[in-house]
């Protein structure tokens, strides 16, 4: 079943998220291709597939999921909602959204979502990992808030240094797909 869901998600991403051309990435790097997962992660079927597949990759010790806005917003929400269907109430995973900049009013919070106890083990989710800088920013904000982060889980790994960056910060990294799986189809 998981392999069927994985194949379906890869096909959606390949047809709706992957584009070839001349692009500048958020890291500043130039690229001959671009992957924008939002058309898939913001669709009903895509969100369900992402939620189910990423949830299946999380270690049992995971207590919440989080990610840097905007790419991770639909992903963490999908995983959280799917956990509500697949887990008993005590094991369901809340979602946190990490702002890029502090909120300019009210509480001036970086982290949106339920307040969780210090030490809560949180997995950081990401759509596309290039250098890993965006996910690492989320990890740093979560750690500064007292949460435990050991894993970054992505949809696509562009194989451009993210894995190495995460390892240097004591993080495990997994992705559902590598860029090679896009470019060989």
UniProtKB/TrEMBL annotation:
Going by the UniProt record, its keywords in alphabetical order are: Glycosyltransferase, Magnesium, Pyrimidine biosynthesis, Transferase
Q: Which Gene3D superfamilies match?
A: 3.40.50.2020
The terms under GO molecular function for this entry are: magnesium ion binding; orotate phosphoribosyltransferase activity
Cofactors required: Mg(2+)
Chain positions recorded as 5-phospho-alpha-D-ribose 1-diphosphate binding sites: 99-100, 103, 105, 126-134
- CDD domains the UniProt entry points to: PRTases_typeI
User: Which family would the database say this protein is a member of?
Assistant: Belongs to the purine/pyrimidine phosphoribosyltransferase family. PyrE subfamily.
The protein's name in its UniProt record: Orotate phosphoribosyltransferase
Q: Which organism is it from?
A: Pseudocalidococcus azoricus BACA0444
């Amino acid at each position: 079943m998981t392999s069927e869901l994985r194949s379906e998600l890869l096909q959606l991403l390949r047809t709706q998220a992957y584009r070839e051309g001349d692009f500048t990435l958020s890291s500043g790097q130039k690229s001959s291709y671009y992957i924008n997962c939002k058309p898939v992660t913001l669709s009903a079927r895509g969100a369900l597939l992402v939620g189910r597949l990423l949830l299946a990759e999380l270690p049992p010790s995971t207590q919440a999921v989080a990610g840097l806005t905007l790419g991770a917003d639909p992903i963490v929400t999908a995983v959280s909602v799917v956990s509500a269907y697949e887990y008993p109430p005590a094991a369901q995973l809340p979602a946190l959204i990490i702002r890029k900049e502090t909120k300019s009013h009210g509480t001036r919070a970086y982290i949106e979502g339920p307040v969780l106890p210090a030490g809560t083990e949180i997995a950081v989710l990401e759509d596309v990992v290039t250098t890993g800088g965006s996910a690492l920013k989320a990890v740093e904000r979560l750690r500064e808030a007292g949460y435990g982060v050991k894993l970054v889980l992505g949809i696509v790994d562009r194989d451009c240094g993210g894995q190495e960056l995460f390892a240097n910060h004591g993080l495990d990294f997994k992705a559902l797909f590598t860029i090679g799986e896009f470019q060989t189809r």
